[in-house]
Structures are given as C-alpha cells and as structure tokens.
TrEMBL record:
Residues 22-40 have a biased composition (Polar residues). This is HECT-type E3 ubiquitin transferase. Gene3D superfamilies: Hect, E3 ligase catalytic domains (3.90.1750.10), Leucine-rich Repeat Variant (1.25.10.10). One of its GO terms (biological process) is proteasome-mediated ubiquitin-dependent protein catabolic process.
Length: 1271
C-alpha cells in the first residue's frame, strides 16, 4: 500500500474536509433535523404556562415575544415556498451534473462534477432528488467507482453513493441493481487507500439498511470485517452496524458467511468499546438462533473463545458494562450453547461459572434498590429467568428407567458423575443464594425455577457432600416454608426433593423433617381431614385442591406422590403423626393451654393479685422456654398455640373485632395494664441464662412464622401492552387501562328502586364503590321532584358561568388520570370559593326522599357517610372500602386461589345486583348512652391510655384465610407498639408504683429503656410482594392492587420498608399518570434519569413571585394550583432564570417566613404584632425551638391575641398545609423543624400526657410527677 493506505491514529474529524470519510448527517442541515432542534431546545418554556402573583393572567408579559420566536402560520408558509423554489433549483443543478458526468471523459472534469454532486447531495432534501434522477445517477457512479487509477475520483464517488442513499432511501435498490455492492466489497478486500475504504464502509452501511440480502450475497460480511483492526473505533462501529443489519435476515441456509466471521467476532469481544461489543453480541445472538439445532455448528462456534469472552462479559466485575437487553440476550446465547453443545457444557463448568452466577443471583433484592424504573426492574427479572434457564441446562436431569433421555443428556450426566468436585462447588456457591432468593417473596415462575435447580443439585450430589450442604443451609426449615405455597407444581417439586433426600440420607433428616413440620404437611396432603385434628389449617393439603382442574398435572398427582413418600419413609417409624410430636412442642402446648385456661377463669375464683402473679409467672416461663437452649422450629412455635394465647392475653380476646363485655373503658384499661406487665417482662428481663434480648427473639420468631404462614397473593397483569378504554361509569372518560364489563340488575322483590335499562356497561375498575353509587342513585331513585329538577338546573347554569370546569374538581377525577384545564384569572379574581361549593353540591348524592339537604351541612355529611345502595356479586355483599376490581378479585381468589388469568378477568361480564340500603334506627336513649360512653372512653384514652391500645383492636384481614397469620400479625402489632411506647409503659409502671407506695423516688423515670430496632419489624417477603404489586402496570392507583396491600398498609405499616411505604404513599396520594402507565407497559431500554417520577409525568406550570411578598405569592399560587396535579416552577419578578434552583429557593424562603415571630402560629412565639412592626425585633424575628415547632394554644373565647386575629392564624395553617402537600407532590424538601408531637397531630393521632415532653420537657415532667388521680 501507499502512504494513504496506512492506518490513521488521529480522530476522523482531523481529516481534511475534501478527503475524510464522513457521514452526510455531519454536513446536511436537512429540514427535518434543523427544524427539530430549535423547538427542542426551548420546549421547556414552550409547553409551560406562566402565572403571576400580581396579575391574574396565566401568561407572562414575555410570552408574546416567545411566540414570535417560533414563528406563525405566515412564516411557515414562506418557509415552505422557499424550500419549494430551492428544490426546483436543485433539480436543474442535478440534471446539469448528470449530463456532465455522462459526457465528461477527462478526469479533471469528472473530479469537478463529482465535487459539485457531493456538495449538492450534502445539502439536498427529500424533495430535491427524485427517484428517477437517483436511478439515473446509479450506473454512472458505479462505473466511476470501478476504476482504480484516480483515488480522488474513487473517494468522491463512494461519498456520492453514501449521500445518495441518505437523501433517497430507494437509491439503495438502484445501486444494488447496478452491482454497486460487489464493487464496494472489492475495495474493502484489497485496501489501497484507507480513506476510500472508510468511505466504502459508510456506503455499505447505508445500503445494508435497505438491501441486507444483496449485501449478504455479495460477501459484505467478510469484506467489512476482514481488515477491521486497521480502522478507527468510529469506523469499526460502522462496520459492525453493517453486519448487524445483515444478520437480521439470517437463515439456516445462509450461515456460511457468518460461520466464517465467527473468529473475528469472538476476537472483537475483547475490545472495551461498549457500543462495539454490544453490536458484536447482537450478531452472535442472531447467529446462535440459527445454529442452535446443530450440535456440530454449536461446537464450531465454541472453539474460538466465545465461552471465555461471554463469561467475562456477564461477570459483574467486567470492565465492559452491557445494556440490560444485550446482557439478557448474551445469557440466552449461553443457554443455547449449553443445551446443544458438549464443548460449551464442559467449558462452562470448567471455567467456574457457578461463582459468576452466584454473584448475579445475589443482586436479586429489588426491595432495597430505591425508586427503580420499570424497565430496569423488568430487565432484572428477565435476567433472573435467563440465569435459571442456564443453570437448568448445566444440571441435567438424572436418567430414570421410565424416561427416554437423549444421548447428550447422558453425556452431561456422565461428565458430572466423573467430576463430583464441580457438583460440590455448584452446591456450595448456589444452594444458599437460591434459598435466599426463594425467601424474598419471588413470583411463582422464579420460585419454580429455583426449586428445580435445588432438586437437581440434591439428585446429583453424593451423600456425604449432600449432608454438609443441607445442614449448613437449614434445609428442613426451608422445605417447610416451600410447602406453605399454593401452587401444585411447586409442591410436587418439594415432594420430589424430600423423596430424594430421604433416599440418600434416611436417618439424618427424618427427625429434622418431623421437627419442622414437613412430616405433618406431607400427611395432610393426602389425608387433610385426619391431619386437621392435630395441626392447624395452615399445614393441611386442602388449600390448592381447587387448582388442579386448571393445570396440566395429572389428577391427584400431588396426593399420590405425597402418599408414596409417606409410605416409603415415614409410615414405618410413625404410622400416626400425632405420636411423633416433639417434647418441646408438647411443653409449649401445655403452657399455652394453661395461659388460656387462666385467662378464661372467673375473677371471683381467685384474688386479683394472686391471679396477676400467676399469669406473670406463666409468661415468665414461656419467655424462658422461647429463649432457652432447646431449639424451637417455626412449626413448633406456630402449632404450640403460644401466639394465640399471647394475643388473647394482650388484647383480652378483642383483636378480631369481638364485642367488649364490660365496656370500652374497662377494655382499654385492662389492655394497658397487660401491656405494661408484658412490656416490663420483655424490656427488663435480667435472666443471665438468656443469650439474646427476649423481645428481639420473639419478634424474629414471629417474622419467621409470618413468612411461612402468610399466603397473600401477588396478582400481576402479565400484559405486554395496556389498551385504552372508555369508562362509562362513573365519570365517562378515557382510561389507559381496560374496563370491567358490568351488568347492574335490581334485586328481586325490591319495589322501590327502578330497573337499570342498559345491559352491559364499561366501568372504571379502580374507583371506589361509592363513586359508582353516586352515578347510579339518580338513575334508580324514583322520587325526583320538580323542585330537584329546578335546583339542578339552577346549579348547572350557575356552574357554567364559573371559570372552573367540572372536570377540574377533585371529585370528578379521583385517580388523577385526566388532565386539568387551567382557567384565565382576572386581576381581581384569584379563587372562586363559591363556585367550588356549587360543584360540591352538584356531586352530592341525593337524600332518600329525593332532595338535597343544604340547610344543615353537618347533618348532610353524617347522612352521606352511609351508603344508599348495597351491591352483591354472586350473592355476597361487596365491601364499600374496596374498589370494584378489588371486590371482584377477592371473589375470584376465593374460588380459584392464585390461578387468575388476565384475559378471563377482563373479558367476563359480571352481574352485580343492587338493592336499597336499610338504615337501622336507634332509640334516643341508646343514642345518648353511646355518646356518653364514647365521651368517657375518649376521656380515659387521652388521660390514662396511649392511643395505641385502642388501635390494637383491629379487624381481621379478610384476604388471609389462615388464622395463624392473623394471630402472628396481631401479636407483631402489639409488640411493635410496646417497643415504640416503651418509655410510656415504663413511666406508667413507675407512676403506679409511686401511687401505690411501692416507691417514693420518681427520679427513676429517666431510666434508659433499651428496645428493638424498627427494622426488625420489617418483613422482607411482604415488602417484596408489595413492590411487585406497585411495579405492575395495572397498579395505576391503590384500587388496582389486591385488597391486602391496603389493609396491611393501614393496620400494619411497620411490616414494610421505608422505600416501599414511600412508593405506596405516592401511589395512594397522587396515583400514576397515564404517561407513566404507558411507559410501564413497554419493556424498553430506557435508563432512569434520576428525576422524580412525578416531575416527568405531570404538566409543569411557571409562576411569577415577589421576593418581598413571599407568603402572599405562595397564597395566590395555592389558590390557583392547590387542587391541580401540576409541577410548579418559580421565576422571580424582574429577575432572570427559572427551573429547579429558583423553585427550591422559593420553598426555602416560604419555610423561613413561617418560622418568623409574630405570626401567632407557634408555641414559642411570644412577640406581639406591635413588637414585630418595630425595628427592635428585626434581629430576633426567627423562632428558635430546640424541640421543634408546635402550634400555639388559643383560648376558645378569644378571637384576637396580641393584635393577631385567630382567623388569620387559621388561614396561615391552611396555607402551610397546602405548601407541605404541594412539596410532597412535586418532590421538594422543606426546611420546617416540626416537633414529633405536631407530626402526630398532622397524621390524625391523639396526643397523651407523655407527648408533652416532646416539645416541653419541663412541663411534661412536672405533669407526670403529679398524683395520677389528678389526671
């Protein structure tokens, strides 16, 4: 080669403009690109409305200038005329160049014509070059490209071919017809000039987009790869892009060129350029799809170092990080290689792939990854499926006599039998992490895959190795948890594992299986009636009996295998399971029975003091046994009845919503006293024989029991794409999710309500039932008077004159999925509260007499709480606290358990019966008795009891059919409250001792009480289940998830991690916008930008504020946007700049304004309004509260204090609440140091005497030191 053919090390952009290989996109400012760039740079401002705090206009003064920047209709038409005239001129120029190239024989003339052609093509548009003209240029350019005499002509010719394909995509076909591809390939096979070769690469890449078959037939694959090492990185990317385009049409008949390129492609995997490596992997994946059916071709692929390079790339410590889809595809390629190639199988095992897979599986803990984008989560799950498939291929199924195995599987099995060290390494690396993945609450598909791998490891391991592996992993406890699942396929795998383990280690695990309850579970699978006599319903086999009709397993397959395992391994040692109950289980059962009997014993039989001492001693003995040296399994702990006995003791049997016999006051007093006793036992346990803190041990046992016994279903939509629908009921709007088909039918015998005429309606599935009732009631109520009609007509006319639209009301769009229309506000009008009240009247449901009650709003609100209609599905009344989707889902789960198909759920027509609700009328005396009783109870709760104790009496979580799980949940709630209120409990105990004369020193109130970390109460399995439901595309609101999510979050929020609670809060408070819903339904490669999800989904509004009137500006901002789901951004008057910085500064300034003295809002504010107006208070105008801000108490008889009106203080607190809510919606951080007691008030919780110490320790201590009789 000449010097021009040497490899250039400098960047491509450093080449001379007339010689370098370039892309036409670098030079051609096409109309599509140039026009798109200008608006995109200013789209942030173009799509954002601007409001001002000084004028009512929703647009700033500069908006008119902004409009002129983007042009008008006249300017657009002038631009179109300009391009039309230009295209006519370009066509004449193209004709001139074409004639010159056709007639010119002199090289200088050809060079000049080619230069002019390249210049014309670089600035040409789609309309400048017709297909006829492109077809005319093709043979001439191909002819000029064939000559080798003048390198400049070759360079300009190939450049013109590149530009021609770029301007007119059909030109690729014309060039192929005139044999342009073989000419370009020839230039690449024998490179004389590097710049010409680079231009040929770009030309082939353009042609391969439209004509990949022609490129394949002409040998373009090897042409672009043959000398790829001589090119720069950018040109290597172009070459690989060409191969990727050709690979798209790969067939089994055209594999020869690709097989020839395998060595080069495998060598390119060593490069560090991510884009280059991803292109190579894409090519190899396409090739692997075609050769996967030929073992010989797969072996040939593996002989060039592909396995080694692929393992390096999937390693988490690799220098080259692949994109998620490419990464998953590479694992899929290894699956195909391991399945069909013995070479790949042996190589993967010898290269210690188990360590790499161990690291990959260890990352499967999505509940601690924060706010991951859905595409990342979906890719992570796909990665898990791919890894499990790879393990399934690496661990063959053991050949049995009745099975017909292929020869390859026999070879794999023989190889593993010859190398037991590999199987042992697999077990050491993978068994613990697979058990960890199963414990994290994965879906049934990943669970089945992990269990299948564990079964193969057990089958392939030798007895001595298996014993070491299973003992270190606590395998019997793990299997006991697996048997709690409902899926029959999972149960069948677990039974096969038990059978294999007992065949290899018959006398080792028999006792362990008995202790962990595996023996009782297997017995219950084929004899549930007998098993239920001595175990709870959690461990019987009836929970999935209804599922077997819908799966492909043989009838009674699980029962038959369970009976086979029992007869072969358990029946000889213990024909009756009741006789093999362990000693510790019998001891715990006797203690629980004694405690239950003592609680049920009449108070008159034994003196109260003696009874309390006996109960305390019994509780002490229970805690000693639970924390003793004898190990207690989860099965023994649950089956002993200790949990139920402790729950009955702490709640006095009221934890399931039972009625109190002696009144609420006595119940709360008794509950508090028992919590004091039990809390003192757990928190001040000083037995030296105990190794761990008793409360911590009990909490961990309960968490293990909850993970084993709970069966809350995870219902995922499994839809690749959500479809848009129109929901007629209740709001008549389009939705981004499917609707339920409902037929409303009046109950037989109801003579009051009307029949609903329409047959089948599309109903929004995620709205509450009361919204459906508001829609149906006016249509079903026969009492519609003329007065009602005239009033409705008047309200409609009044509402139409208002600037608010009906769709802007929060009631009209509870899910927040519909967009809001902003109103134009005049200078004298900021908020029309009268219009809002009119809208609320329009949405108010009718009274039973057919009229609305506007004279007594308080009475109307009370009437509005009770439903006017009752709905029934298949004879069962629907719960008004659930959405329609949740109600139907609950009914389906009762019938089919977890086997609910998405298509069946949405395509079925549901018949819902309605009837009029009958309200029970109470007598006057009973009503006043209840009011007095409630008042007394409330008084006692505030003075003596913490509000936690009344909250312990929670209703049963109806989704969970297992009583054991309900008991565990109730006891966990009690322990969490005892741990959280441990200081209150210990103080109460010390004060009682002081009142009874048992101590005369109250200094012991300051004794430190050690508790348990709040993280100990977080259940990782339930947290992962909730995360899965939140990530589901159908979860556009909390109404789109199973009811257990709402119920557990309401009554047991401590079970979930902080990140999960934050996600649930945002979903419950804000919903999910349609943009986010659509993005979740597509599995793409987009990476999370790191911004808050809501910031990118809700429309943005710009607001103009004044620095010297921050609170006034904030009040007007909230008047405009408090009820709208928009993201607010701030710009300051007479200042340049907007966006995140000024917005965060605005929130900070508002927070500082609320912390100034003289507002009359805070308890530490002792400065009057007159003092604030003086210049002396300027230096001390900010409040300094060491214990946080707490509202200032106001006397009910005062309307003004220190020159500050009480009504103004109320308005400021309303504004503060709106600011806090808007900050939560927009994801802003506020610098407001609220006290803990104020936080409790914000959350609607009651304050007690102990809470005073949170904001005034001196006052709180003084009050606590007084005699208990005084408070």
């Amino acid at each position: 080669m000449e010097n021009r053919g040497q490899k250039r090390t400098e960047a491509v952009d450093e080449w001379p403009a007339d010689k370098r290989a370039c892309s036409s996109s670098e030079f051609r400012p096409s109309t599509s690109n140039s026009s798109a760039q200008t608006p995109m740079s200013s789209s942030h401002d173009a799509d954002m409305d601007t409001s001002s705090s000084t004028s009512g206009s929703t647009r700033s003064e500069g908006d008119g200038e902004k409009d002129s920047m983007y042009g008008s209709c006249d300017s657009d038409s002038s631009i179109r005329d300009y391009y039309r005239r230009r295209s006519w001129g370009d066509q004449s120029k193209f004709k001139n160049v074409l004639s010159r190239l056709s007639e010119e024989v002199d090289e200088s003339g050809q060079l000049a014509a080619l230069t002019e052609l390249c210049e014309l093509l670089s600035f040409a548009t789609d309309s400048s070059l017709s297909s006829l003209m492109a077809d005319s240029f093709s043979p001439i350019l191909v002819k000029l490209a064939r000559q080798d005499s003048n390198p400049d002509i070759m360079l300009l010719t190939t450049r013109a071919i590149t530009y021609l394909c770029d301007v007119n995509p059909r030109s690729s076909g014309f060039l192929v017809r005139h044999d342009a591809v073989p000419v370009l390939c020839q230039k690449l096979m024998v490179i004389e000039y590097l710049d010409v070769a680079e231009q040929c690469l770009q030309a082939l890449e353009k042609i391969s987009r439209e004509q990949p078959l022609a490129c394949l037939q002409s040998g373009a694959v090897m042409a672009v790869l043959n000398y790829i090492d001589f090119f720069s990185t950018s040109m290597q990317r172009v070459a690989l892009s060409t191969v990727v385009n050709i690979c798209k049409i790969t067939t089994s008949e055209s594999l020869s060129p690709f097989m020839e390129a395998i060595p080069i492609l495998c060598n390119l995997l060593q490069y560090e350029d991510k884009q280059l490596v991803e292109s190579v992997v894409t090519c190899l994946i396409k090739i692997g799809e075609q050769v996967c059916h030929s073992s010989d071709m797969l072996d040939e692929v593996c002989r060039h170092g592909l396995i080694q390079q692929a393992l390096h790339l999937i390693d988490l410590n690799s220098r080259t990080t692949l994109g998620q889809p490419i990464y998953v595809g590479l694992i899929g390629l290894l699956v195909k290689l391991a399945s069909g190639s013995a070479v790949a199988f042996r190589t993967l095992l010898e290269l210690n792939i188990s360590s790499i897979i161990k690291d990959i599986l260890s990352t499967y803990d999505l509940s601690h990854h924060g706010m991951l984008s859905t595409s990342v989560v979906d890719g992570h799950c796909s990665q898990m499926h791919g890894v499990l498939k790879l393990l399934n291929e690496l661990l063959p199924t053991i050949t049995r006599e009745q099975d017909i195995e292929v020869h390859l599987s026999s070879d794999k099995e023989a190889f593993l039998m010859e190398r037991p060290d590999i199987v042992e390494k697999f077990g050491i690396d993978l068994l613990p992490v697979l058990i960890q993945v199963l414990h994290s609450g994965v879906d049934v598909y990943i669970c089945y895959g992990c269990l299948s791998i564990i079964g193969k490891l057990v089958s392939l391991s030798k007895s001595d190795v298996l014993l070491t592996l299973l003992q270190t992993a606590n395998f019997s406890s793990f299997l006991a948890g697996v048997f709690m699942r409902k899926d029959p396929h999972v149960i069948l795998l677990a039974l096969q594992i038990v059978d294999t383990v007992l065949l290899k280690l018959p006398h080792v695990f028999l006792k362990a299986f008995t202790k962990e309850g595996v023996l009782f579970t297997i017995y219950g699978l084929f004899s549930p009636d007998k098993c239920s006599q001595f175990t709870s319903s959690v461990f019987d086999g009836r929970r999935f009996a209804k599922d077997e009709s819908s799966c492909k397993l043989q009838k009674d397959a699980v029962q038959n295998l369970a009976k086979h395992v029992w007869n072969n391994h358990f029946s000889v040692e213990s024909p009756n399971p009741e006789k093999v109950v362990t000693n510790i289980l019998q001891k715990l059962r006797s203690l629980s029975t004694a405690l239950t009997a003592m609680l049920s014993k009449s108070v008159n039989d034994v003196a109260p003091t003696q009874e309390e001492d006996e109960i305390y001693n019994l509780l002490h003995q229970i805690m000693l046994d639970l924390n003793g040296k004898d190990p207690i399994s989860t099965f023994e702990f649950v089956e002993s009845g200790i949990v139920k006995a402790l729950v009955n003791y702490l709640t006095n049997g009221q934890h399931l919503g039972g009625k109190a016999d002696n009144g609420a006051v006595d119940q709360l007093y008794l509950i508090e006293k028992r919590c004091e006793v039990f809390g003192r036992l757990l928190l001040s346990f000083s037995d030296p024989s105990l190794e761990e803190f008793p409360l911590l041990t009990l909490v961990r046992r309960l968490q293990s029991a909850l993970s084993s016994s709970e069966s809350f279903p995870v219902i995922l939509s499994h839809t690749a794409r959500l479809r848009n629908s129109y929901a007629t009921v209740p709001y008549g709007r389009c939705t981004s999710y499917p609707c339920l088909k409902i037929q409303f039918v009046k109950e037989e015998g109801d003579i009051v309500l009307r029949d609903y005429t329409e047959s089948v309606l599309n109903v929004d599935p995620f709205v509450p039932l009361d919204a459906i009732e508001r829609y149906l009631w006016p249509k079903l109520n026969p009492r519609k008077t003329e007065d009602l009609k005239s009033r409705s007509r008047a309200l409609k006319e009044k509402g139409s004159s208002s600037s608010h639209s009906l769709s802007d009301s929060p009631l009209s769009s509870p899910e927040g999925t519909s967009s809001f229309e902003l109103r134009t506000v005049t200078s004298g009008e900021l908020t029309d509260f009268h219009t809002e009240s009119v809208e609320k009247e329009q949405h108010c449901p009718l009274e039973e007499d057919g009229s609305t009650n506007t004279d007594h709003p308080g009475q109307f609100d009370k009437e509005d709480v009770s439903p006017k209609l009752l709905f029934y599905l298949e004879g069962k009344q629907l719960d008004f606290t659930l959405s329609l989707y949740q109600s139907i889902l609950k009914r389906q789960l009762e019938v089919e358990l977890d086997n609910i198909t998405s298509a069946k759920l949405w395509n079925h027509v549901y018949k819902i019966t309605y009837r009029r609700a009958v309200k029970s009328k109470k007598s006057y005396d009973e009503h006043h008795h209840n009011v007095a009783q409630s008042s007394l109870s409330r008084r006692v709760s505030v003075c003596n009891c913490t509000p936690f104790f009344s909250g312990m009496l929670v209703p049963e979580v109806d989704v969970e059919r297992s009583s054991a799980a309900c008991d565990v949940l109730s006891l966990l709630k009690s322990l969490e409250g005892i741990n959280r209120f441990r200081f209150h409990l210990m103080c109460c105990e010390r004060i009682s001792a002081f009142a009874e004369g048992r101590t005369d020193n109250l200094d012991t109130l300051n004794v430190a009480v050690h508790g348990v970390s709040q993280n100990e109460f977080v259940n990782s399995k339930l947290t992962e289940k909730l995360e899965q439901q939140i990530r589901d595309p159908m979860a556009v609101s909390v109404g789109g998830m199973p009811s257990w999510c709402t119920q557990l979050m309401t009554w047991y929020p401590f079970l979930f991690g902080f990140e999960a609670r934050c996600k649930y809060f945002r979903l419950a408070a804000l919903g999910r916008s349609p943009v986010h819903t659509q993005s979740m339904s597509h599995s793409n490669t987009r990476v999370s930008s790191g911004r808050q999800h809501n910031n990118g989904n809700f429309p943005r509004k710009k607001f103009l504020v004044h620095r010297d009137k921050i609170l006034d500006s904030a009040a007007k901002m909230m008047d405009l946007y408090a009820h709208q789901k928009v993201v607010l951004e701030v710009e300051y008057n007479e200042e340049v700049g907007t966006g995140l910085g000024p917005t965060l500064e605005f929130y900070t300034m508002v927070c500082h304004e609320f912390q100034k003295s003289g507002l009359g809002m805070w308890r530490d504010d002792h400065i009057s309004l007159e003092c604030m107006k003086s210049s002396e208070a300027e230096d001390s105008k900010f409040l300094v509260s060491h214990f946080g801000l707490f509202p200032r108490p106001w006397s009910p008889s005062l309307s003004m204090s220190s020159g500050i009106e009480f009504s103004e203080v109320i308005k400021k607190f309303v504004l503060l609440g709106q600011i806090v809510a808007k900050a939560l919606q927009d994801g802003r951080v506020l610098d407001l140091p609220f006290s803990k007691a104020f936080h409790k008030l914000i959350l609607g919780k009651e304050l007690t005497m102990y809470d005073i110490q949170l904001f005034d320790p001196g006052l709180g201590r003084a009050l606590l030191m007084q005699s208990p009789q005084n408070w």
